[in-house]
Structure to design on (511 residues):
């Protein structure tokens, strides 16, 4: 484990001590909105972060702690407050607040808010998970990922916030680490006036904190967070594009130096997301994989395909004939996480098992039958994938949800993709990006080729948006919701395609 330099330890210690002094009055600190996440039958995690000047280091706050009051109510007007208390926004945690509220009733909707220094936050709405022994008729959720701020507007979040859902699964690339010019890329807002520091690639804790703050100032993203509880995992851009474990994408960067950057990135990620206190990182290590239960209907396994993976095979390129990708000892999940997953889904009592993870699991050839495969995806870790799909073959109701690739795909999953005549053992729903890649298009020459040479693909689409899903007792339905445009404000949304799959006979059929 990486040891933090003594000078940095002294800085954090000093901040904590200073935080005991009286806090000066400030302007409205709730510029980044509110959020909730990781719902349990008896509780939910509430989040906010104080930042009266969000685009500046430390959010424009002095290094002192601020008391933050919180309330949970059964109604939006807060006439039936059932839980309340006071937390402290410490400078050592970026003045973020993580309140783990317990003692709530299962399967219920609640409202929450914060107050600090005479200012009241926006009201958020959240929902607890059903009781462990409950038998829900359905679970409604959305799958979303990849929201590059510079690539477009977040109208998709505004539409998602209006959907009737129980939870959002966000599957990575919440931020992008690259430099941003002063007008914010495709948004071309000359009034934005970003500080010059945004023209630097993120690598320090302050720069990562400021990048999250920029994204969270968006009103549509704030609306989606305030409307529903989120369950999140990361992919690569929260740290660096295509990193693997302790390996930077740049081969000249030593592992010990990259781990310093990873520690900064993981710390900022935890500070800026609705994650519980036990999830906070220790240096460059952060345990993010976990399970959620929705009564007997569904168990959701949230995976981490970045922190523990072996470095990508064959130079991290699109390759044909890469024998290393099928080497049994190579692992995408790491041995501990993989064994945890296989053990739990292998004996799961739930009717459905959701694998919420970052990268496309289905084989996807980028040419003919011997075409190129993407070594950054599950295609580069074929042995791990085979183990999971062999387990899914004996576990009815396995649904894989994925992000990362900025396209919509719907796929039948087979143990051996070279044998398309064999029965599917699971299905995969790959959601496109919220904005990454700009407007996109319904189809491209590459997508046409993929449909030709990957017969298990039922959909390949390049528009922006999200996937809306409903699990019933015996049937799953997925609606691919796509945007008319994202590079200009006011994009409209429509359903591009819909599929259903039966729990005991997996296979996507057009609805």
């Amino acid at each position: 484990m990486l040891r933090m330099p003594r000078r940095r330890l002294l800085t954090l210690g000093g901040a904590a001590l200073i935080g005991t002094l009286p806090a000066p009055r400030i302007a409205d600190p709730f510029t980044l909105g509110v959020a909730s996440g990781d719902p349990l039958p008896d509780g939910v995690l509430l989040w906010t972060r104080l930042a009266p000047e969000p685009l500046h280091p430390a959010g424009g706050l002095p290094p002192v702690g601020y008391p933050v009051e919180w309330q949970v109510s059964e109604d939006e007007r807060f006439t039936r407050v059932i839980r309340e208390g006071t937390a402290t926004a410490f400078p050592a945690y970026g003045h973020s607040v993580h309140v783990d509220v317990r003692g709530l009733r299962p399967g219920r909707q609640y409202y929450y808010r914060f107050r600090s220094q005479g200012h009241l936050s926006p009201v958020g709405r959240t929902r607890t998970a059903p009781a462990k022994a409950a038998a829900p008729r359905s679970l409604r959720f959305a799958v979303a990922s990849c929201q590059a701020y510079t690539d477009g507007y977040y109208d998709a979040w505004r539409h998602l916030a209006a959907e009737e859902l129980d939870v959002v699964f966000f599957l990575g690339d919440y931020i992008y680490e690259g430099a941003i010019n002063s007008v914010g890329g495709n948004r071309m807002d000359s009034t934005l006036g970003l500080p010059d520091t945004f023209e630097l690639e993120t690598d320090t804790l302050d720069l990562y904190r400021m990048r999250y703050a920029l994204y969270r100032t968006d009103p549509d993203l704030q609306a989606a967070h305030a409307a529903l509880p989120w369950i999140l995992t990361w992919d690569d851009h929260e740290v660096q594009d295509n990193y693997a474990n302790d390996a930077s994408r740049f081969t000249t960067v030593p592992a010990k130096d990259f781990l310093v950057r990873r520690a900064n990135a993981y710390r900022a990620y935890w500070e800026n997301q609705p994650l519980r206190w036990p999830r906070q990182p220790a240096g460059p290590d952060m345990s993010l994989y976990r399970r959620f239960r929705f009564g007997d209907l569904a168990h959701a396994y949230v995976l981490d395909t970045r922190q523990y993976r072996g470095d990508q095979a064959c130079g991290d390129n699109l390759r044909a004939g890469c024998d290393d990708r099928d080497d049994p000892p190579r692992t995408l999940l790491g041995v501990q996480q993989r064994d945890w997953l296989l053990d739990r889904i292998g004996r799961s009592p739930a009717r459905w098992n959701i694998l919420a993870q970052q990268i496309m699991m289905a084989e996807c050839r980028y040419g003919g039958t011997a075409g190129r495969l993407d070594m950054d995806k599950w295609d580069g870790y074929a042995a791990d994938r085979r183990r999971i799909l062999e387990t899914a073959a004996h576990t009815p109701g396995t649904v894989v949800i994925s992000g990362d690739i900025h396209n919509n795909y719907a796929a039948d999953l087979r143990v051996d993709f070279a044998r398309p005549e064999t029965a599917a053992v699971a299905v995969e729903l790959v959601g496109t990006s919220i904005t990454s890649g700009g407007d996109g298009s319904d189809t491209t020459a590459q997508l046409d080729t993929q449909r030709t040479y990957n017969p298990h693909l039922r959909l390949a689409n390049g528009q922006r948006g999200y996937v809306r899903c409903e699990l019933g007792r015996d049937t799953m339905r997925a609606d691919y919701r796509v945007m008319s445009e994202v590079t200009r404000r006011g994009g409209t949304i429509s359903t591009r395609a819909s599929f259903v799959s039966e729990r005991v006979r997996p296979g996507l059929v057009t609805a």
Observations:
- Helices lie at 6-18, 155-161, 205-216, 219-227, 255-271, 335-346, 382-392, 445-453.
- The mean pLDDT is 93.
